[in-house]
Design brief:
With about 500 residues, the chain is α+β, with helices and mostly antiparallel strands. Helix 1 crosses helix 2, helix 15 packs across helix 17 and helix 16 crosses helix 17. About 10% of the residues have low confidence. Helices cover about 40% and strands about 15% of the residues.
């Protein structure tokens, strides 16, 4: 086949498209655009037409489109992370009318699984293979001896009484504002649940968020220099039935058996080629660097042999059980010689030292605690009821949470929140100011910064419209307004009763 082929992946968050040379399977161009708000069929079809016009001028090139829905005979039978209007929609006819070309439609996880199964050898295809895509939701593809069972939708299973797609999908982490480590634990529990149900011989983990499962997130984004970036390029994680991770490391030149190898993706003892050799595996080398301060002084890409002992006997005995031992490399409770003997480990000594330091700071020793800031929370001010708050009305923990959320949004882990227009609450702000409320008091009650309240006050006094605030600030102010309205209604009712039934 000559010419180009076009592929489109429609997700709950973004739409990705690529043009591929049909002869060499080389990706020629690729584009990505956000999924239209609401995920309506007509809006998505228009977005697909727009993104395809950017990557290809060939009006006759066939298109393959992946949807986050069950697809039976070209008709969508479900809707995950898109509008429910997709249910019952003839997706093939919809896209053919919009694009005026030949179109094939398939479930997104089934398409990803077919690409992965084609890259496996015969031995790996044997038995039950489950491909899982980790994105806004959870997608799945089930294969038996290389044959696809379509539309399995294992993300719609329930676990702990809740739908897996809702509790394990990455949208849950955004919605609950949780750390990535919490999400990784949920994914691991979900894989163990599937293992009990289907006993697969192989898990293939893919999707737009699977790279966050790595210890070093940046390593998953590196591309092998000797392989072109193509549609069948896999990102690396596989898990064998029985609980052992097999990793196809994306090494960029560092030797196995070193801490640099671990940082570049070799994060499994079973998947490292040194597991039966004279050198340590990458995981063992990383562990040795953490527990042996002499090994930590070597270059990170230096392979470590199994037979070589770096630190002389007793080198750390005099500092074990102290914070200094933790600083010299003994950072795990189970790896300290004091573990299980009733004596304090280096890690516990470190924790005690930090707790004592923070307690002294809170008692007024050393540099004064900057309340209402992230530094205040790190210095030990973790009680919101006792925190005197900063100039903008925030406690130390609130400032810490906002700082972490802002960092997550900058890195793309948490969604960027679009501000909303606050014209509806300007009359209440004006009334509060007439009642004598200070800007700081309003900020404290609303849980926002004093600068935000100052902008609202100026808008209320001058009649300026279109002032925008964060959604959570707007919701808090609306709640304040409703409580004030309820109190006013109660007072009016009480006065009416007094007028109707005057006391003797």
């Amino acid at each position: 086949m000559t010419g180009s082929l076009l592929g489109v992946d429609v997700g709950g968050t973004g739409i990705k498209a690529g043009a591929v040379d049909a002869g060499t399977s080389t990706v020629l161009r690729r584009r990505e655009t956000p999924t239209p708000l609401g995920g309506e069929p007509l809006a998505i079809a228009a977005a697909v037409r727009g993104i395809l016009s950017e990557i290809s001028d060939d009006a006759d090139a066939p298109v393959g489109i992946c949807l986050p829905t069950i697809v039976v005979g070209g008709v969508a039978r479900s809707a995950a992370n898109v509008s429910t209007a997709w249910i019952g929609t003839d997706a093939v006819a919809l896209f053919q009318d919009e694009l005026q070309r030949a179109v094939q439609v398939l479930n997104d996880a089934d398409a990803a699984g077919l690409a992965e199964i084609a890259a496996l050898d015969e031995q790996q295809r044997a038995g039950v293979v489950i491909a899982i895509t980790l994105g806004t939701g959870i997608g799945s593809a089930l294969f038996t001896d290389g044959v696809l069972t379509p539309n399995t939708e294992l993300g719609h299973l329930t676990m702990d009484g809740e739908l897996v797609d809702r509790s394990v999908g990455f949208s849950a982490i955004r919605r609950e504002n949780r750390a990535v480590e919490v999400w990784a634990e949920r994914v691991d529990r979900y894989l163990r649940h599937l293992q009990r149900l289907f006993s697969p011989s192989l898990f293939v983990i893919g999707g737009g968020r699977q790279h966050l499962l790595r210890r070093d997130p940046c390593a998953a984004r590196r591309r092998r220099p000797d392989r072109p970036r193509g549609l069948r390029q896999r990102r690396g994680h596989r898990r064998r039935g029985g609980g052992r991770w097999l990793v196809a490391p994306t090494m960029t030149g560092s030797a196995h058996g070193s801490a640099a190898g671990y940082a570049e993706g070799c994060v499994s003892i079973g998947g490292c080629p040194n597991r039966d050799g004279e050198l340590l595996t990458c995981v063992e080398a990383m562990t040795r660097r953490r527990s042996d301060f002499q090994a930590a002084r070597l270059p990170r890409d230096h392979p470590l042999p199994r037979s070589l002992s770096f630190s002389p006997p007793g080198a750390l005995d005099r500092v074990h059980g102290t914070a200094w031992g933790y600083r010299r490399g003994c950072r795990q409770d189970s790896g300290c010689p004091h573990w299980g003997s009733g004596r304090k480990t280096c890690a516990q000594a470190r924790r005690d030292y930090l707790a004592e330091y923070r307690a002294r700071r809170m008692d007024g020793h050393g540099k004064a605690v900057e309340h209402g800031t992230t530094r205040g929370a790190l210095s030990g001010c973790t009680d919101e009821a006792r925190c005197p708050r900063g100039a903008d009305g925030l406690t130390c923990l609130e400032a810490r949470r906002r700082s972490r959320l802002a960092a997550a949004r900058r890195s793309g882990v948490a969604p960027r929140v679009e501000p909303v227009i606050a014209d509806a609450i300007l009359p209440m702000i004006r009334d509060l100011r007439l009642e004598g409320w200070s800007i700081r008091r309003i900020a404290r009650e609303a849980g926002c910064g004093a600068e935000t309240v100052r902008r609202l006050v100026v808008a209320a006094d001058t009649g300026i419209c279109g002032v925008r605030v964060r959604p959570e600030t707007f919701a808090t102010l609306v709640g304040m307004q409703r409580r004030r309205d309820s109190a006013c209604v109660a007072q009016d009712s009480h006065r009416s009763m007094e007028a109707m039934f005057p006391s003797s």
